[in-house]
Design goal:
By secondary structure, the chain is of the alpha+beta class. Among the domains are: 88 residues, Phosphorylase Kinase, domain 1; 177 residues, Orthogonal Bundle (Transferase(Phosphotransferase), domain 1). Helices cover 50% and strands 12% of the residues. It has 20 helices and ten strands. The chain has a five-stranded antiparallel sheet with strand order 1-2-3-5-4, sandwiched between helices. Strands 6-8-9 form a three-stranded antiparallel sheet. A hairpin with a 6-residue loop joins strand 1 and strand 2.
Amino acid sequence: MSDEVGSILEQQPDLIKIKPIKTSRPVRFYNVVKRTDDGDIKQIVQVLGNIQNHFAIKRTKDLLHYLNAFSEFAHFNEIRKVGFHYLLFFEHAGKKTLDRRFINPFGPAENGTKKLLEDLVNSLEKLHSVGFVHTSIRPDNIIVGDKQSYLMGFEHAIPSLTSYESEVLPEDCRYCPPERLNGQCDEKGDIYQLGCTLYFALTGKHIFRLNKVNDPMDQMWAHVHHSIRKINRLPIFWRYLILWMTDKNPSNRPSLSDLKQWLENTTVPGWVRKQVLTPSKHFPKKTLEALADEHYAYPIYLKALQMAKNGYLPSAFNLYENGAFKGFSLAEEQLGSMYRDGRCVQRSYTMAAHFFSEAVKKGHPQAAFHLAQMYENGLGLEKDLSKALKLYRFAAERGYLDAQKKLGQMYLFGQGTEKNTSTAISWLVMAAHYGCEEARETLITFKNSQ
């Protein structure tokens, strides 16, 4: 096996017969046979290739252990750290993901798609009941077994609330609901993604033909503005269902209870059947600016970043301020930085601490790092190394490199805490691996001093 992840699996002494299910990023699934004292057992291994975000990985592990109580999910057996990867082990559930299973010249049987919908609705009921949304329902995150389909990719699952995690778009937005541009991430977003996935299951094609569209803003433009391609070629009851599930307005979409009712009688509200679709598939020349002009929070934030980089600080400040007053943590962090540095506004450590604190409440790691620096150096706040350490750890556990480096240095030199060389080295090695040069230099200096 030539790829890096395959080599990692081959080096595990208890794994044999390793075959990829899905190897394209960001998902990596493998069928393996695991040797145990009780005999060989078939397993599915999912490989996580980025382990910076300790907080998210621990949350994923805890969620998977909870979901083991329900037969709707592939049973989670083990998490194993191998270098800078984590291996997640599940009971064998199937040999193919939906994107490979359902692509054939004749298309899937409609009954098979109905069973797929039933399986995923049952899965989402359990997930949503504990306040989580999946956020990444797509064909390559679904394993199709002989009798049941299983939703995978729970490293993307987050609590259903507005937060830093909901504001940041994934690298691939081909299945991303349009409201995500405003940081909205709830159960109706999962319904939208499920509708897009059903379209693929029925046709073998993306609902907006985005397979070769690589820019995330172009992908989001399609979700905001494009009409479903060749929707009239679907059987009429599937056509209406997918129109309902992928409505641009989240409040118009069905609930899981509505979908369960549809599975019994295939009925949809009258307004869905009366919709008149206007074909649309164009892209603007400057998609980011077009979305920002339509007042979407994330594109406005990106536009402000560009303005600040190009020296248009007053315009950037105004855009950040607008976003911050709406509770958008990405804007709060940037506005706090401008107040701290006195860029385009009179310096105010009080205002900086306020905006950083508001962003930290929503889980923003860089804001936590900035606030920690203020506590460490007594900038407008009473100097407090213990609070600084706590905030550095908050940011480090969420994958912020500078915080991982700083936390390692504090443990190495006993700043705000007792010295702990092993903990220090683990954080410094993590930061150095992901590109922090200062962490690498600290490690070299420490090694030479021994």
